Amino acid sequence: MDKKDKHYALGLTFLFLAVGAFTASHHEMWRDEIQAWLLARDSTSVFNLFANLKYEGHPGLWHLCLMPLSRITSSPVIMQMFHLLITGGTVYLFVRYSPFNWFQKLLFCFGYLVLYEYAIVARNYALGLLLITVFCVLFKERYKRFIWVGCVLFLLAHTSVHALIVAIAIGIALCCEYVFSGRFLQPLSQAIETIENKKTIWIGFALIGLGIITAVLQLNPPPDTGFAVAWNFNYEAKRVNDIVKLISRAYLPVTRPVLGFWGSNLLTTYAFFQTIQVPLCYFLMFFSVLLFLKRPTALLTYLISTLGLLTFFYVKYHGSIRHHGFLFLTFLMCCWIYRYCSAINLGKTEQQDTDSIVDRVLNVAGTVVLTLLLICHAIGGITAVRMEHRHIFSYGKLTAEYIKSQGMQDLPMVGDVDFAVSTVVGYLPKRQIYYPRGSRLGSFVRWDNARTHDAPNQLVIEAAETLNAQTDKEVLIILNRAIGTELREQHNLAFLTKFTGSTVGDEGFHLYLMPAP
Predict the structure, then answer these.
(1) What is the C-alpha separation between 363 and 352, in angstroms, rounded?
(2) Cys-Cys link to 157, which of 148, 211, 337, 475 (CB 3.0-4.6 A)?
C-alpha cells in the first residue's frame, strides 16, 4: 500500500507540474510579483535588501530566496519556475503523507489556491503553504522531532504576516498541549515521558518564539510609511459581517469565467447566496469547532488562527483572496493534525457510548463537508486556469517586449502610476526609471509618504522635459492611462502604441516618445 501511495503522489505531482508549467508560461506577472523580484534584483546586499523591505509589510524570506536567482539571470521567469517547484513539493508531501482519501487529495492538487493562487501567481505565500504542509508531516511525531518543528515554524513566521499569525496560533497551541499534557492528555504525557532529552523540546519552543519576535520586528513600519497606515478599532456591525463573509470566499472560491476572474466569486452573484452568506460562514466556524472540540490542540490552533486572521483583516488590511486563503489552509491543517492530537482525558463516563456515536457522525459529516469544499476549490482552480489561457493577465510583459523590439530599452524613461509601470521595468534589463510620484529614480516602488501625491499628466510631461534637457536624448513616457490630444500636441509628443484590456485592469499601458531637444 505504501508503494501505491508513493506512486500516486509522484504521478499527481508530475501531472500538477505539467499543468502548472503550461499555465505559468501563459501568465504575465503583475506588479506584486515583480515588486519582490525588483527588490531582490536591485538591492546591492542582504543588508540593503532588508532596508528596502521595511515598507513592504511582509518578512523577507521570499526575497532572500530570490536574491541568488536574480544573480543568475535578470529574467523574472526563473522566479516563476522556482515558485512552481515549491508548490510541486507541497503537492507531493500532501498526497504522500496526508491522512485524506485519494479523491480529496486529487481535488486539493487542482484546487484554486494550490493550482492557481499559490502556484501560478508567484508570491511569498507558496512558501507558507509548503512550510505548513511540512509542519503537518512532522506533527505525528512532533516531540521526537521538536527542533525540526521549531525550525519550520521559525521559517513559517518569516514568509508573510498571515503565515505569522498561523505560526503564533500553532506555537500557543503546542505550548498549552505540552504544559497541560500531564493533567488532561494522558496518552501524550506518556509519549513525552519516553523522550530522553527534554532540552530538545525547549530548544524547539525557543526557535518558535525567536521566529515570531524577529518577524514582528521586521514588520514594524518606519515613521514615513505611506501604505495601509490606518487602524480600525471601532465596532461596526456591517464591517464585522463583511469580514466574516471572507470565510465563504476562502472556503468556496468558485471563480467567475470572465476577463476579471481573479479574486472574483461566482456564488456572490446569486441573490440567494448573498442572503445566506453570513449565516453560512458562522455555521462553518461552528461546525469546525464541533469537529475539533475533543482535540484541544487542533481546536486551539483553529480558533486562534481563524480569529487572528479575521481580526487582522478587520483592524488593519482587508486583503484579497491570496490573503483570505489562509483561513481555509488553517481549516485543512487542523483536519490533518486532528488525527494525531490527543483527546481530553477526563475519565470514563456513562455518556461514553453516546459520545462515540456522536464522534462517528461528526467524522462522517466532516469528510462530506471537506470533500464538498474541495470540489468547489477544484471548480475554481480549473476555471482560473482556463481564464489565464484565454486572457492577458497584465500587459507589463508585452509592453517591455515592444520596448525592446523597438530598441528603446536604453532610453531615459518616465512612468506613472509607479506601481503599475514597475511591472514593465521588471521585464526590462533596466535598473531605474523616473517616477514623478515620489520624484525620484528607481525600479521597485518605495511605499513611503513621499509618493502619496498625485502625478497628473502635466506633471509627468514636465518631468520628461527635465530629463530630456539633462540627457539630450529622447524620453520614453510610460503611462497606464492616455494623454489627451491637445496636451500631446502642445508638447510635441509622439504616440507609439497602447496595450489595454488585461485581467489586472490598471496594468494596460500607453507609450509616448518625447523627441531629443
Answers:
(1) 16
(2) 211
